[in-house]
Records
---
Amino acid sequence: MSNSTPATIEDVARIAEVSIATVSRAIHMPEKVAKSTRLKVNQAIAITGYTTNAMARSLRLGRSNMILVVAPDIGDPNFSSILVGLENEARAHGYGVLIGHTQNDAQRGLEYLKFFNSYQAAGLILFTGILPFGHQAVTARLPPSVGVFEPVFNGGIPYVGVDDVEGARKAVDLLISEGHRRIAFIGDSNTRLAYRRRRLGYEAGLAAAGIPSNLVLEGDGTVESGRLALEQLFMRDDLPTAFMCVNDQTALGVALGLKARGYEIPDDFSVTGFDDIPQASFMTPSLTTVRQPRTAIGKHAMALLLAMLSDRAAPETEILLRPDLVVRNSVGPPPGGKKR
Amino acid sequence: MSNSTPATIEDVARIAEVSIATVSRAIHMPEKVAKSTRLKVNQAIAITGYTTNAMARSLRLGRSNMILVVAPDIGDPNFSSILVGLENEARAHGYGVLIGHTQNDAQRGLEYLKFFNSYQAAGLILFTGILPFGHQAVTARLPPSVGVFEPVFNGGIPYVGVDDVEGARKAVDLLISEGHRRIAFIGDSNTRLAYRRRRLGYEAGLAAAGIPSNLVLEGDGTVESGRLALEQLFMRDDLPTAFMCVNDQTALGVALGLKARGYEIPDDFSVTGFDDIPQASFMTPSLTTVRQPRTAIGKHAMALLLAMLSDRAAPETEILLRPDLVVRNSVGPPPGGKKR
DNA sequence: TTGTATGCGTTATCAT
DNA sequence: ATGATAACGCATACAA
């Protein structure tokens, strides 16, 4: 059965009593081979337990069936669920997933470019908003690539993400429908497009309800920044009845700060987040937030990349998935009751 | 600069005006080559931006420098931090990390054996406690493999984990030192060795303090099972003052159940967990638990595997890292106050 | 429909 | 210290 050295195409050919060319054809172009021979070959494959040597194949083809997935931080809790989608889709099409994380280190990014080259990877999935390798030099002829979450700096690379505007809009709309009029937005001043779009959704919602622009504070997306923003608001004595946060971490910070000051959520204040990270459902109160369909994003990103590899058709440049509002317990009517 | 087709060893040889054999030597056995030639070669490499074609190399060597990491569920939040350790260590030694998840599906496991073969992976990191491929057939000659968290069923494979007994011991000892005497253990009836060991630590702690064996309930490690175990205890009207849980999920379930019944933690009951999953620090109250040094586990596992690959020395069979007790706010003295 | 033969880029063996 | 060359396993152009 499993002999010391893996069976090669020659072993199969010998047993099937055909040439190696025929074996190769039987595998890759079955219709070009007589039914009877095909049968013999398949039997021989079964007997030997033959598996194509991917290295030899890639060498011959000048391209491997591996996809390199580069993320700034593979330890990010959001990353794994995306990875699931990526991996499933890749595997289903006979591709392997090679992972690497850059730790936001440009040097490391360059290393990965070499790596990519060395492994003749067929394509690239990019998690960072920016190209991990020096833009200028490489941008010209980049391998088939797909971004996840947001456009890759310098453009030209299609990406799969979530409709942040719509997601944010759903959150404000909920708040407004509960009767809130003074709604603060705790944003993220980083340049990530996703964050800017969430703010856009917030503003659009306000505008649609005829509410003049409200309080916007920019943090940096961390728990701490949520807490800080809250303190600022208290200092300015300019309190909203609801806090709409650019992500769940920020919302967590706000919730923690509110609790520390002795307030109850959602009785005294309402809070919403964005992303639906795992702990969102375990906070007290559990957080009303906007869910990123992570596995689906991974799946779509990989599917798009694979499509680019087979067709040479110009890919869609942007695929936005529909985010869902996850209603939990951090939102209620404002203290004075539902205004209208 | 970055030409349409990557530079090969021949390009380098031509520019350096040496043979390809010399280039190869200059790279892999620099001491066997004259200093002056070495210099020329290095310059040529710099000029061309040459990177070894990993496919060709692997084909020639009969083995690639890729490590296959197989986990039952790469979406598990615990997985990513381990992955960081694995990836860093691998990369530092010039290895790539190929990932796959079996979804606990035996069929999928078999598929990965083929995959492993096809990619000529140099080694295997196993997350499951059991071999993903049919044991009997393959066990005989398995590739160099290392388990993570716990021994791989059927043994023979070294693994890196945490000292569960010691970790559990630290938790009971804390509880005991706070004055608790009636300490329930909510376990996990699954066959995972780690879980059994945690119970062992619990019993050892009790024994050391001269406390007769207490209440042990077996769940299945889920949030729900924690809640259920709690209900059973209430039904039996046989309440402890502290709940020591086999993992954080279970502890979460217990905490939720306690809260639902209107009790305060840690005033009415103390609760401990194990693992230190991300949400442990965000629960209210934050959970006192035992931390798995995840990144370190990954790092050690990969280091061990790599060592096995270079030395052919028989590896240590078990590496147990020291777990740390993370003291947060879910433990206090029992209601009656610290006894004796 | 099938077989023969070439080359993909390396490393290692054997000469020199 | 260096060079020529074979072989790794495969896919395909070309011949039959």
---
Amino acid sequence: MANATIYDVAGAAGVSLATVSRVLNNPEKVKEETRLRVLKVIKELGYRPNVIARGLASRRTTTVGIVISDVTRASVAEMLGGISDIAYNYKYSIKLFSIREDMDASEIFKDIVAEQLDGILYLNDELSEKDVEQMRSVFTDNQIPFVLANVVSDNETVPMVTIDYEKAGYEITKSMIDDHRKNIYFLSTARRYSVNDQKEAGYTRAMEEAGLEPKIFRTSGDTHVNRQHFATFFEDKKIDAAIGARDSIAVSFMNIALDNNVRVPEDLAVAGFQNTKYALLSRPNLTSIDIPVYDIGAVSMRLLTKLMSSKSVENIRIVLPHYVQVRQSTRNNSID
Amino acid sequence: MANATIYDVAGAAGVSLATVSRVLNNPEKVKEETRLRVLKVIKELGYRPNVIARGLASRRTTTVGIVISDVTRASVAEMLGGISDIAYNYKYSIKLFSIREDMDASEIFKDIVAEQLDGILYLNDELSEKDVEQMRSVFTDNQIPFVLANVVSDNETVPMVTIDYEKAGYEITKSMIDDHRKNIYFLSTARRYSVNDQKEAGYTRAMEEAGLEPKIFRTSGDTHVNRQHFATFFEDKKIDAAIGARDSIAVSFMNIALDNNVRVPEDLAVAGFQNTKYALLSRPNLTSIDIPVYDIGAVSMRLLTKLMSSKSVENIRIVLPHYVQVRQSTRNNSID
DNA sequence: CTGAAAGCGCTTACAG
DNA sequence: CTGAAAGCGCTTACAG
């Protein structure tokens, strides 16, 4: 039989459907003998509770929504890995919602509410504070717990898992300054992201602290455009270090530098963020801030499970550690 | 009000809930005047049908399941992009199922059936023929349409969207042979994938056709292991060309070759598969077979929508075109 | 420890 | 064109 229902099981086991339901949901309330008998029938019939019916009756769908803007980005995929592993442990299913530029965020959030999810993970670091506020208000009204993963929000009431990007930006810049670099550029994205803003802030702090002028250059992220813009760097401008907001930007920049006969790391130090495979496969290898993206996903999912079981959660703002993975592109330049 | 139900709408509009339901699902059956009135109330109340209740009553969840083994892989993420875009157009939601090595495939498929999905997309190219057969049998018994995306199955009754990997493998190998290369290696993965088997088959065909000996080397895919294994290539073995089953393998190999003072492409031609950003960011850039992964996702989702609406589908085995993106790593070596 | 009954929020024949 | 009623497959107080 393709699809046994709870009635079939109850009939075959000679109990009521309430008992079958209990065996599944509150086994301790059922006499062992009965429980075993029901379990046997369940197995024989290959019975599996209809997830939808259960969701309607119990008002718990054991499904969490993952809201993202671009699945394609390496960090998103990696985070999904962490989320998926933890979700599996806790028996949660995952429903994916891609959110597009042209969508009305507030409408989307309401649509998501209609999905009867038990909780939401927001991976979209393109989030403006206004969007966060809308989301908070819609989900809070409907009592749906949510967590921001790898997104920075200043609202202290919003649960969030991230790393200290400001500090990371500061540290990598500082290390270049200590390495006697003076003209250090920060290569960021044209599109503003909360996390990139943080990186920039850390960079700026380190530069100003050292009495150096911060120079932030925003690229569209398109490799071709990069090449044109970047090429002029080596003609007109003095530059002896560059930090890319992403590894791919850093590698792309480094390649163009090499094409212009700039030596890396001797003439130019380069570093990126994320410590992706790009950093590993580039020549020279790229120094990069290692961000535990998988962990961010896993930890945010675990935080969400706590919120969903409405345990009182002590810390809803989790900052994970990061470190600088030093490689060839910034090997020491010190004169001593 | 946080959560208006269909009753609230019916009450406020002075109609029965059946009429509200019709306005949403069969608007043509409702008098325009009534329809407009109901629509107005729906808007005012911000009513959105409970997706779960609708799913139970209609036995259609407008949700498709995506079954994958490793979200982290670039091709999977890219495919998800295509799937997600088309799903959005057709108003389908996406539920993600990660399948792990240690799981019993057949049990998983039954669990998935319990989710009451309208259709399934299988992105897992680690699929054995046995797994495909189990899946086919479980889903067919339960009348759930499914499509294999970027997976090759010999079973002609199984809907599938892919490219002709055998031909691609043949073509890239042939072009190297035409370029007077003789010792051409194919660098594949230790883990067998249906698509990689196809690539290898095409490579082997081209080699044998030219009277050359096929040499397939399987790497675990871990970059460190690669380095150790590959290093010996340049001591002991004559080798003047290599094709990586993935771009990352090809780039990794190329880097090690360069470290061993092998010139690319003069001494060694290298090519990869997938035409990812790795190919673009490597030095020299990597020649790569461009595989329309996004399109594979999009087309398979569209095929699935047809199957779900039980239209008679003419062609359930779709082969998308590919091409060789020639770059520096294989620039012509011809003597003429 | 177990069963009968109501209810979750919808859709869908069936009448009219 | 519209409404009353049954039903989708479960869970969950409420009795006993």
